[in-house]
Amino acid sequence: MKKLNVLLVDDDTINRKLIKALLSHHKDIIESITEASNGAEALEYIKKDKSINLVLLDIIMPILDGKGFLKQFRSQKANSNTPVIILTTDDSKISEILNYGADDVLIKPIKEDDLLKKIEYWTQDT
User: Fold this and answer.
1) Is 101 left (phi over 0), alpha (psi -120 to 50) or beta?
2) How many domains, in total, are found in the chain?
3) How many angstroms separate the Cα of 27 from the Cα of each of 2, 5, 59, 64, 111?
4) Domain encompassing residue 21
5) pLDDT band for position 47 (50/70/90)?
6) Mean pLDDT, the chain, as a whole number?
7) Rounded distance, CA 19 to CA 102, Å?
8) Is 74 domain-assigned?
9) Are 61 and 35 in contact (CB under 8 A)?
10) How far apart are CA 55 and CA 84, in angstroms?
11) What's this model's pTM, rounded to 2 decimal places?
12) Quick check: helix, strand or coil at residue 108?
């Protein structure tokens, strides 16, 4: 497996710091972590950086939420194989979120082992 370039999208700075800290313990699988505070910012990063090969995405955000991001992200053929794992506190909309093109969901608060299992599962062929 090649090392991952992760795009972490969450409007909550504390959540981003927590996930980044969890991932920083695993430099064997994580090459870089880019942070975005909303879906619009994330789409701009993806336009500039074609090496992103995993997206960790919050759903409820200002400017462009996770659903809006997924709709635009998945409309680009180049992004069709990039795994998107949703990080959310709201488990009532999981099937809806998966229909928008997310690959998997983790319920906050995120546990390191759960996060790593999901990452390894979705990126085993990269």
Assistant:
1) left
2) 1
3) 12, 11, 26, 30, 18
4) 1-59+66-78
5) very high
6) 92
7) 18
8) yes
9) no
10) 5
11) 0.94
12) coil
- 1-45, pLDDT tens digit by residue? 579 999 999 999 999 999 999 998 888 889 999 999 999 999 999
3-state secondary structure 43-101: HHHHHHCCCCCEEEECCCCCCCCHHHHHHHHHCCHHHCCCCEEEEECCHHHHHHHHHCC
- Tens of pLDDT, residue by residue over 91-121, are 887 888 899 999 999 999 999 999 999 999 9
Please report, for residues 6, 35, 36, the alpha-carbon distance to residue 57 in angstroms, rounded to integers and kept in the order given.
10, 10, 9
Asked if the structure places residue 89 within a domain, the reply is no
Q: Phi-psi region for residue 63, left (φ > 0), alpha (ψ -120 to 50) or beta?
A: left
Decide: 66 and 36 in contact? Cβ < 8 Å. no
- Domain for residue 126, yes or no? no
